[in-house]
Design goal:
- This protein is mainly alpha-helical.
- The protein contains 13 helices and no strands.
- Helix 9 crosses helix 10 and helix 10 crosses helix 11.
- Bound molecules: iron/sulfur cluster (SF4) (2 copies).
- The site of one iron/sulfur cluster has 15 residues, from helix 2 and helix 3.
- The site of one iron/sulfur cluster has 14 residues, from helix 6 and helix 7.
Length: about 200
């Protein structure tokens, strides 16, 4: 359904849960959640999240839209699927978190722009779109640049020894980036996918 998420400046927006149920991937299964905590207890990265998945789902039900969409939970999820395998109610936790991350990103929530993982994902996607593969040198530097030029140089220098070791052991090449054939076609496919995705949630 193409509807905009509820607009609110309130701390609690009870329309948010319904919007998630109807518009987020896997959201239709969210009402099955019985708050057992198996997902959070199984999550290997839970300590790095503002809120574990169980709590995020409770916050959605409580209408805490801003708190949900400004949390780092979605961006620190590694998509390991531990939670999905163990959930006794078949809630597709990973899909829900991934799609909530996309919603936060589109709506311009700061956390979606500035977490390490969000920066890294953008640099990764940039390289994939341009070359059809990841060029470790360029996408790493692109990621560093997201912190500003001064910080990028500092980070690059700090990792120089590691980079030289990778080159020495032929794990990273020097010279022009390798490209796949048909990068133009790949870009067209990715741009079309982005256009469809943008229209899908009406935001
Ligand atoms: S494991 Fe499933 S039912 Fe239990 S809290 Fe997580 S999502 Fe809800
Ligand atoms: S898929 Fe994400 S939320 Fe689920 S257990 Fe793995 S890291 Fe945690």
């Amino acid at each position: 359904m193409n509807v905009a998420p509820p607009e609110t400046s309130k701390k609690y927006d009870l329309g948010f849960a319904r919007w998630v149920y109807e518009n987020v991937d896997g959201g239709d299964k969210l009402s099955m959640c019985m708050q057992c905590g198996m997902c959070s207890g199984s999550c290997p990265i839970g300590t790095e999240m503002d809120h574990g998945p169980r709590k995020i789902f409770m916050m959605i039900r409580a209408g805490m839209k801003d708190a949900v969409l400004s949390s780092n939970t979605m961006f620190n999820c590694t998509s390991c699927y531990n939670c999905v395998v163990r959930c006794p109610r078949g809630v597709p936790v990973t899909y829900i978190l991934q799609d909530l991350g996309r919603v936060a990103q589109r709506m311009g929530y700061a956390e979606a722009q500035k977490t390490d993982n969000a920066r890294f994902a953008k640099a990764f996607f940039w390289s994939t779109r341009l070359f059809g593969r990841t060029d470790e040198r360029l996408f790493t530097f692109k990621y560093y640049l997201s912190f500003g030029i001064g910080e990028a140089i500092k980070k690059a220098m700090a990792n120089m020894k590691l980079a030289m070791s990778l080159v020495k052991h032929k794990r990273m090449h020097i010279g022009m980036p390798h490209k796949i054939k048909g990068t133009k076609d790949l870009k067209a496919i990715l741009d079309k996918a982005a256009e469809i995705e943008k229209g899908r949630q009406g935001i």
